[in-house]
Structure formats: structure tokens, C-alpha cells
Amino acid sequence: MRTFFAFVQKEFRHVLRDRRSLVVLIGMPIVMLLLYGFALSNEVKNSKIAVLDLSKDDVTRELIQRLDASRFFTVTEYLQSQEEVEQVFRQGKARAAIIFQQGFQNSLLHTNSADVQIIADASDTNTGSTVAFYAANILSSYQNELLAQQKMPYRIIIDAQMVYNPQLKSAFNFVPGVMVLILILLCSMLTAVAIVREKEMGTMELILVSPTRPWMMILAKALPFLIVGLLNVVVILLMAYTVLGLPMRGNLPLLVASCGLFVLLALSLGLFISTRTQSQQVALFISLVGLMLPSLVFSGFMFPLENMPLPLQIISNVVPTKYFFNVLKSVMIKGLGITYVWKDLLVLVGMTLFFLGMAIKSFKIRL
After folding, report:
1. What count of other Cβ atoms lies within 10 Å of the Cβ of residue 328?
2. Domain annotation for the chain: domains and CATH numbers
3. In sequence order, which residues have a C-beta less than 8 Å from that of residue 270 and are 6 or more positions away?
4. What residues of the chain score a pLDDT lower than 50?
5. Burial 163-172 (b: 16+ CB within 10 A, else e)
6. Alpha-carbon distance 235 to 49, whole Å?
7. Cα separation of 50 and 133, whole Å?
8. pTM score, whole prediction
């Protein structure tokens, strides 16, 4: 038994001595519990909607007030014409648009029927259908109140439409999200072990005595993996188009260039991890666990970001997958050009330069 307790004491000392492992053992369950507890929700809340009120009467004002007062919607845009609806969707300012036809109250009181049109952004299938369903329920509840107060049957006719994805195919949201995860995990893991492998194999000494400068060595490590990543991009796009039937509505060169930029960002992130770690196991663990969880939660792929508390929404701004996922949806599904995604691309360029610079700075020329 004394031997057994001696081994137990030794293992405790190893755990306490390795502060990185201690942080992972204690901190990771706490972080995961907080993220999954707050972020994972199938309910859509605080969705931004636009309103086009062509009638501007008492009934439409009350309906707009009810939509804005609910915990599901926030009216952020008041439109003046039908042409502004598509522009709102292109700029990502609203998930849905509610259109009240002219003479809404008059039609409701005299013909017992009035038209409301709900147009939802279905590039995110689940969120788009849920938003349209919630809006229809709020309008229907008002109709039920009128039926209870009046003898004559009043009807509000709702015309719900889904733009960008009228068939509500899940592949429209699934494919861009999977592309984000594949590229960030695969490319970062490839380079995460590139430098640390040299240290473990004992070949780093030979590399360091060569006249090659650190920045040249870092770029030389990244170049082969950049080609591999671009090949993966081509394969994924071909499968998405031919097998899953995902349309490529946007500019194809812009899409490929955006994917290439994100691959370079993932490689730079992996190289930075490789320069800061001393073993392949640690490098793989950081690149796999440390990148997969934020990519799932904060990219907007699985869960709407507006569902999260404000602190988590702020944290999502430093996660690169959030910007790349928005670029993929905008270019592939919505068919938008660089005018609408240049801000996201600029953020990705900045992150790439930052992590590439940190990798070069962290590279030690002495063992």
C-alpha cells in the first residue's frame, strides 16, 4: 500500500507542477459549462426585423408594437418602399421583413380580411423558418382577439416567403458550416506539429545552423500545407455543387480567394501554436480542442449569436470563423459581391498578419 500511495503522491505532484495541464483540467469544464449553458439554444430571440408599413393606421401600428415588444423580435429598420427589402437582406440588417399592405385597417374592418407578407432570410434554414413562424403566431394571436370581440369573422391573410432558400434545404446552412470547421481544424493541425516535430525528432539543430532566416522558415513550412488546403477547398466546393446541389450564386474567384485567405489564417494560427509548444500531443490538443469549441459556438453555424448574452457576443468578435462563415453564406448562397463582405475579409487579413507575425516572433533560434 505504501508503494501505491507513493505513486499517487507522485502523480499529484506532476499535475500540480504542470500548470498548463492544471488549467486545462480545471478551466475547460468550467468554460464548456458556461458556453453550453448560455449559447446552446434552439429558441430564436431578439431577431432583427424590418417593417414596411404602407398603411400607417392604428391596427398596423399596434401590430408593429406587439412585434417589437415580444422577446423574439426587435424592429430595427422602418422601410419606405418595397425595393428596400432586398437591400436590408443584402446588408444583413434583418432576418425578416414584415410588409403591411396599403389600406390594411380599412380592408380588415370592411371586408374582414387583410394581407400581411412575411419575408424571411432562409440562408440559415432553421432560423429563417422559426422567425417566420414566430411572426405568424403573433399576428394570428391578434386575429384571435378580434374574433373574440366581434361577431363578424375577421381574417388576416399571411403570405410567408423564404428568400435565398425557398425549399428550406438544410445543406444551405450545413455546407458552409462544415467548410469552416474542416478548414480551421485540418489546416491548423497540419502546421501545429510542423515545428514541434522537428524539436522532438532532433532535427531542429540542423535547421538552426543553416543561414535561413526565421520568417523564411515559417513561410516554407506553411506553403505546402497551403496547397493542400486549397485542394481541399476545391474538393469541398465540387461536392457541394454536384452532390448536395448547393448553388454557387456569387463570384467564384472571390469565393476561392476568400477560402484561400482563411486557409492561410488557419495555417498561421497553427504555426503560432507550434512555436509555443514543446510536444506534438500538446500542439494537437490545443489546435483540436481549443479551436473546435469556439468554432462551433461562436461562428453562428449552429446557434444564432443574438441568442447569447452580451459578453459572449463580444467574445465572438475575436473568433475568425464568425467572419469566414458570414463570407461563405453571403457569396455562395446570397450571391453578394465584395461590396458586402469586404469588412469581414479585412478582419481576416488582419488576423492572418497578426498570427503570422506572432509565429515569426515566437520562433526561437536557440534550443
Report:
1. 24
2. 47-163 (3.40.1710.10), 170-362 (no CATH)
3. 187, 188, 189, 190, 191, 192, 194, 225, 287
4. 7-8, 33
5. bbbeeeeebb
6. 37
7. 16
8. 0.70
